[in-house]
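Hey, I was hoping to borrow your eyes for a little while. No rush at all, and the record is pasted right below.
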Amino acid sequence: MTQVSRIPLRKEVEQRVYEVLMESVAAATSKSTVSRLLDDLLSPTERLMIAKRLSIALLLLKKYDQRTISRWLKVSLGTVSKISLVLQKGHGGYQSVIGSILRKEELKALIEKIDAALANMLPQFGRDLRGWRKRRWEARIANQKPF
């Protein structure tokens, strides 16, 4: 179980420790780097706890019912309520991160709708416009020169 020493750090040391944490997280610029950092930094239980908190925030921002979220993620209603309170009165961290995820989901859904509409309008590609676009993208990447 995670424990913190009862002996408090000096304020300037505590501030520098948090700075190192923030710099480390900010330096992780790809999913694989973030994954490796979290694997090294957190226990499996801590990773799951943080993942559940972020998922709770995502579902709350998507307007899901708190009881439903509690049942789906196997967390207490108190935990869901706490995250809801942080969303309302916190510093906006959840909103900025989750907002980015929601924008990507909305963009993906929009692109899929456009793909479906184009597939119906352009019979020469049939229903596989996505496959055609993927093959075209792969060909473009294959023709690029390395740095």
About this structure: The chain has a mean pLDDT of 87. The longest helix spans residues 93-121. DSSP finds seven helices and no strands in the chain. The chain has two domains: 32-90, 92-147.
